[in-house]
Automatic annotation (TrEMBL):
<feature type="domain" description="Thioredoxin">
    <location>
        <begin position="43"/>
        <end position="246"/>
    </location>
</feature>
<keyword id="KW-1133">Transmembrane helix</keyword>
<keyword id="KW-0472">Membrane</keyword>
<comment type="similarity">
    <text>Belongs to the thioredoxin family. DsbA subfamily.</text>
</comment>
<feature type="transmembrane region" description="Helical">
    <location>
        <begin position="21"/>
        <end position="43"/>
    </location>
</feature>
<protein>
    <submittedName>
        <fullName>DsbA family protein</fullName>
    </submittedName>
</protein>
<keyword id="KW-1015">Disulfide bond</keyword>
<keyword id="KW-0676">Redox-active center</keyword>
<dbReference type="InterPro" id="IPR036249">
    <property type="entry name" value="Thioredoxin-like_sf"/>
</dbReference>
<keyword id="KW-0560">Oxidoreductase</keyword>
<keyword id="KW-0732">Signal</keyword>
<dbReference type="Pfam" id="PF13462">
    <property type="entry name" value="Thioredoxin_4"/>
</dbReference>
<dbReference type="InterPro" id="IPR012336">
    <property type="entry name" value="Thioredoxin-like_fold"/>
</dbReference>
<keyword id="KW-0812">Transmembrane</keyword>
<dbReference type="InterPro" id="IPR013766">
    <property type="entry name" value="Thioredoxin_domain"/>
</dbReference>
Length: 249
């Protein structure tokens, strides 16, 4: 009987309020850490998870295409068709260097070489940075299918509104909202349908494969009458154009 009382006393000591308080604090800490972890996982995934499914990669884009041949007639163009020199710009809408080149040099290039009738500029997608690069390129193709002039407006304004290179930002939702707010004079409903139907994904893939076939390995890169330049420096580009013009004369 005495032995039994000692056990009961010991149990009472173990169940003291002080010990119960420690248990409650420990449990609260564990639950709090678990909640923080789950929240981090949820919000971290939710930032990208809704977008990934709608974004294609090149292996998912099916259809026949030809990598060989620059196919000028298929590309957006700027300048006189009678210009003696054809320049191709290879670019990715997510590329920060492309945005910087556009901001620093495009107006000057247009004034010195395009408006003067010396060159005709063409644009070919080299969408390589991420899956939403392909989506942005397909939006550009959809705009170009409606209006060549509106494509160049789209190009300029999209670079101005470029997101972080390391984040998924050029989603269907972003591009539809962007075009609605920034590009007038097109059939917006047609654009939305083309984007959702992925109507111009194959031309984007063809652009990518064509660029790779001719040795493009980054952006921006430029090609003069079929010859790829190693540098995108404006002065080097201008020098190469002037040399070409001089030899043509």
């Amino acid at each position: 009987m005495a032995h039994s009382n000692k056990k009961n006393q010991s149990k009472a000591k173990d169940d003291s309020p002080k010990k119960k308080g420690y248990i409650y604090i420990l449990a609260a800490l564990v639950i709090g850490l678990l909640a923080i972890t789950l929240a981090a996982i949820f919000f971290g995934d939710s930032k990208q998870a809704p977008n990934i499914g709608e974004l294609p990669n090149y292996t998912e884009i099916r259809g026949k295409y030809e990598a060989k041949g620059l196919k000028y007639e298929k590309q957006p163009h700027l300048g006189s068709p009678s210009a003696k020199i054809k320049i191709i710009e290879f670019a990715d809408f997510k590329c920060p260097s492309c945005k910087d080149w556009e901001a620093a040099n495009m107006d000057r290039f247009k004034k010195e070489y395009i408006d003067t009738g010396k060159v005709e500029l063409y644009f070919i997608n080299f969408a390589f940075i991420d899956r939403d690069s392909i989506m942005a390129a397909s939006a550009g193709e959809a705009i170009a299918a409606q209006s060549n002039d509106k494509f160049w407006e789209f190009k300029s304004k999209l670079f101005e509104n470029q997101g972080d290179e390391t984040e998924i930002w050029a989603t269907q939702e972003f591009l539809m909202d962007f075009v609605k707010r920034n590009i007038d004079g097109i059939d917006y409903n047609r654009f939305v349908k083309d984007l959702k139907d992925q109507a111009y994904m194959l031309p984007v893939k063809e652009d990518f494969k064509t660029a790779a076939y001719y040795g493009v390995n980054g952006t921006p890169q430029f090609m003069i009458d079929g010859k790829l330049l190693e540098s995108s420096d404006y002065e080097e580009l201008a020098t190469a154009i002037d040399a070409k013009l001089g030899s043509a004369q």
